Amino acid sequence: MLYDSLTIEEIVDSESAQEFMKEATKLAQSWELEDIGRRLEQKSNLFSTVLSKEKIRFITEEDLAKVAEHIFTIRRKTKRLIKANGFENIRNKLVELLYGEKKIEERFNEFVNNIDSIDMKMRINFAGDILHFTNPDKYWLWTNWIWDPETETGSLPLVIQDYSQLSAASLGETYKRVGEATILVNAVGHKVSFSNMGKGLFGTDVFLACVYAVYMYTVFRVKLSQEFNRILPDLVELTQRVLGVHKMEQVG
Q1: Which tens digit of pLDDT belongs to each residue from 94-115?
Q2: What is the largest CA-CA distance in the chain?
Q3: How many domains does the chain fold into?
C-alpha cells in the first residue's frame, strides 16, 4: 500500500485542508455545498441504475447519453465517441471496466488505452466518473483537476504532505494510488469536518472540488484582469460543473 510507513497525520495536511474550506465558505453557504453532496447522490443513483451489472449489457445510446451528460469533459463529445469507437464496443469496454475479473489497475489501463477520439485526460475523467459514481463504496474519483501527473497539479497535492508517490508507471496503478490517498483524506475530512458536505466519499468529492475552485480563483486573480475575473463562474457553479451536477436539480 502507498504510504505504508507513514501515519495518516503525516500524509494528510489537515491544516491546509481546513484553510481551503475556510476560503470556500467565504464564497459559498454551507447549505449550497451540502446541496452539491446530495446532487452527487442523485448522480450516483442514476449511474448505478443505468450501469448496473444486470442492465449494462442492454443499455442504449440514449442511456449512455444520460450518463455522459453528467461527466464534465465528456458530455459534449458523446456522439463523437460513439462514432469513433462504435456503441457496442464502448458498451463492452464499460462492462469490462466495471465488472471484469482483472485487477482494477489492469481494467483501468485497458479502458483508457483503448478509447479513440478524445485525449488521455478525458479518458481518465470518463473512467474515473464511471467507476466512482456507479459503485461509490468500492471506487473513487480521479480526474485531471484532482491529480494531473503530467503537470503535477490538482486539488489532491494541495492537501497531502507528499504527492511524489501519486504517479506510477501505469495510469491504472496511478488510479490505485490516487484512491489510497483520497481514502486517507476522506478519513481525516469526516473526522475534522472538511468533508461533511456529503455522505462517504461524496463529501470528499465536494471538498476536493472546492479546493480546486479556490486554487483557480487565486491563480486567476494573480494572472488575469479584473474584467476577466468577473466572467468566471462562482464557486458553487464551478464546483457543480466539474462534478457534473450543474444541471441535476436537487429533489427533497
Answers
A1: 999 999 999 999 999 999 999 9
A2: 52
A3: 1
